[in-house]
Amino acid sequence: MRKFEWANGTTVSVPSGGINDVMVVGTTFGGRQQHLKGVRLGDEVQVLPTTFNAYDDKAVEVHHNGNHIGHLPSKTGLAAYVYDGIVSGDLCVQQGIVTAILGGYQGKNLGLRIYVFDDDGRPLDDRTPSP
Q1: Which of 46, 55, 53, 69 is nearest to 119 (CA)?
Q2: Architecture of domain 18-103
Q3: Rg value, the chain, Cα
Q4: pTM, to two decimals
C-alpha cells in the first residue's frame, strides 16, 4: 500500500503499482457536478470502457456510486491505453481511488484526481504510454 498525505493531515491509502494523479475530465457536463458533491477523498470509483461516445471511440468513463462523473483523459493517450487493455483482457483495470477533490469554492466547479490501478497487482506505470 502507498499513502498520499495532504498538508491538512488527510491521508489516502492506495494499492501499489497504479497510475498516479489522473485528472478526471468532462466533470462539468450533464449534471455531473451534482454527483461530484457526494464524492469524498478515498472513495472508490469505477473505470469502464464506454460502448458509445460521439467524440472518442476509445473513451473510458469514471463512475461513482453508479453515477457517470467524467472520463479518463484521451489527449494523453491514457484512455485509449486503458480501453484497449480492458477490451483485450491485458488489463483488469476497473477501479480507482479519489486522491484529490479540486475547486468547489466561491462558485468554482468541482474536479477530481484519481489513482487508477490494475486488479492483477501488476504495476501500470511501466505499461503506460508517455504523453
Answers
A1: 46
A2: 2-Layer Sandwich (3.30)
A3: 14
A4: 0.81
